[in-house]
Amino acid sequence: MLNARDILAVGDQLFATTAEGLATSNDGGATFSVDPDAPSLYVIAGDGSGALAGVDTTGTIWTRGVGQEWVHGHTVEGTPQAFAVDGARLYVADDRGISYTDDAGATWVVLKVRT
């Protein structure tokens, strides 16, 4: 059994964040292997190009372009509950509510609800 915190499907690949590390599957989830080069992510997201981004267990943002290495950014505030990618823009639901960053977490914009 695979105990996952978060899962992501990108094309034919599945990604699962686990206590052991980022597990990947190339066979529809029949088997998974832990990626030894990936950070220990808590949540993960991707865009249609195959680029990935996530937040690790310390709150640090990580990004990886297609065919590239993982690069760390800045941090989120508190425990991330949800995470999404739209090009270079990263969205997170954390202790602030919903926020986005265009610079890997150096600056954040907290979204407000119109009343």
What is the element layout, followed by pairings?
Layout: E1 4-10, E2 13-18, E3 21-25, E4 33-34, E5 41-46, E6 52-56, E7 60-64, E8 71-75, E9 82-86, E10 89-94, E11 97-101, E12 109-110
Antiparallel strand pairs: 1-2, 2-3, 3-4, 5-6, 6-7, 7-8, 9-10, 10-11, 11-12
Describe the protein's architecture and organization.
- There is one protein chain.
- The chain has one domain: Neuraminidase (6 Propeller).
- The protein is mostly beta strands.
- It is globular, with a radius of gyration of 14 Å.
- The protein has no helices and 12 strands.
- The model has no long low-confidence stretch (mean pLDDT about 90).
- The strands form 3 sheets. A 4-stranded antiparallel β-sheet has the order 1-2-3-4, with no helix packed on it.
- CATH class wording: Mainly Beta
* CATH architecture group name: 6 Propeller
The termini sit apart by 45 Å
Structural class: mainly beta
Which superfamily, in CATH terms, is the homologous superfamily? TolB, C-terminal domain
Count of individual beta strands: 12
Mind telling me the C-alpha Rg? 14 Å
Count of discrete alpha- or pi-helical segments spanning 4 or more residues: 0
Largest sheet: 4 strands, antiparallel
Which characteristics define this entry?
single chain, 115 residues, mainly beta, Neuraminidase, four-stranded antiparallel β-sheet, 0% helix, 51% strand
